[in-house]
Design a protein that fits this description.
The structure is a homodimer. By secondary structure, chain A is an alpha+beta fold. In chain A, about 40% of the residues lie in helices and about 15% in strands. In chain A, a hairpin with a 6-residue loop joins strand 5 and strand 6. Bound molecules: manganese (II) ion (4 copies). Chain A binds a DNA duplex through helix 3.
Chain lengths: ~220, ~220
DNA sequence: AAATAAATTTAGACAAGACTAAAAATGTAT
DNA sequence: ATACATTTTTAGTCTTGTCTAAATTTATTT
């Protein structure tokens, strides 16, 4: 249907649209995709010709419905493959992204349906990110950054904002994983570090850590 | 490492080398890949520059060691993915080829190792074709075409020569599957059709069928 | 051995995607 | 409002992979 390159552009625009609701700049896309703005301009013209994006010179780009549906399908594939890699092949959550970047471009509706079934229709990927259904709708889940919780709050770890390998490995090393219970014990005014309890372990985490971990509060 | 296109050429040459031991013609490659001989010539020059094939103008092409190893790796991936699709995702053996054609180009040593492990290190794919190991060595198994067996011979179905969907569906419909026992009951001189026993069912098959089914004889 | 047929390569063109350098548009500071 | 800086687009080039048509080489006949 679409080339790998086109799919990567669509996906990137989809993600950047949250941040830049009234039009994504070619530079923003170029930065994200490690390419040049001139290359982006070329591609925007092509995607526009195919009615996948609304592109007005000098005014950035937004996805058309057709483009948004295509983007959601790619994200669905990416995240389902990530679940597969972690659940079935014992990859760790910091290793799956690169491979999923390739697998997301495999074209086969039936393959994805069967993969979805094998994985028991997961709603979230290994990083806690929502997996859209076949219609492109994303499941929603209340979540808040650990850094925004007040002392005493309890919850469950449900996602990460930063998905870099170094952050994920830090979490592994310190026994923080999705699904584990968490409680804020203390907050330090000076550097915004926190003392937290993960399951039954007490741990001190910096502001940088706390602002990249999503929690679903339990009350 | 190599582009999808380069990999497809290498794989095709590998397969055609059995048939044309002393050099595969550009036309043979073009026919197989549904492309034009002139495109093949272009690619042969590129592959030759990369020391993947030996190419002499007008004299056909053979794989270099480097090219043969690369080809085996691609075939390994293709066949492992086919096993995965059938064993884990319940694809039928006539549906897997197209998808495997795409999956074989995914680049990740670790992915294939882990897939191999998940599948319990299979030696043969759903069509009975051998899966090379990491070093590029293919397991061997004695097999002979059903059409070459004499009356009374017994064996096990171990592979198919024709992997077309129509042939595989015919086998499904008539209860012929890899692993099942088979015995030749009668052979008709006139049209070379045979009466065979599959497990406990008796069946009449044409020469065309018999010459596309591989049997491992049991005595 | 020359003539003809078939296979193969070359020449020239095209599309997708990407890059660099230059031009044009937009935004900001005086 | 004008000058300067930044962003974005355009123009021109390159690589990969493909094609058609023409030229060349090899194979087959007479
Ligand atoms: Mn990812
Ligand atoms: Mn993810
Ligand atoms: Mn196959
Ligand atoms: Mn196969």
């Amino acid at each position: 249907m679409f080339s790998d390159s086109e799919e990567n552009y669509l996906k990137t625009i989809f993600h950047l649209e949250r941040q830049f609701k009234d039009g994504v700049s070619t530079n923003a896309i170029a930065d994200q995709m490690q390419t040049k703005a001139s290359s982006v301009t070329d591609m925007m013209k092509r995607l526009s010709d195919k009615n996948l994006v609304n592109y007005v010179k000098y005014q950035g780009v937004t996805l058309c419905d057709k483009g948004r549906i295509a983007a959601a399908a790619i994200i669905r594939k990416h995240r389902l493959w990530e679940v597969f890699l972690v659940e079935k092949l014992d990859f760790s959550w910091d290793e799956v992204h690169e491979v999923a970047e390739q697998l997301e471009h495999i074209e086969s509706e039936e393959l994805i349906d069967k993969l979805d079934k094998l994985l028991n229709y997961p709603k979230f990927d290994p990083h806690g990110d929502p997996i859209p259904n076949k219609d492109g709708n994303f499941p929603v889940r209340d979540k808040v950054l650990l850094s925004d919780l007040s002392i005493g709050s309890k919850g469950i770890c449900v996602g990460v904002k930063d998905t870099s390998s170094s952050f994920l490995k830090y979490l592994d090393k310190n026994g923080i994983a999705l699904g584990k219970s968490i409680q804020v014990l203390e907050k330090e005014d000076f550097d915004h570090s926190q003392k937290i309890k993960i399951e039954n372990e007490v741990l001190q985490v910096s502001q940088q850590i706390a602002s990249n971990l999503y929690i679903k509060t339990t009350h």
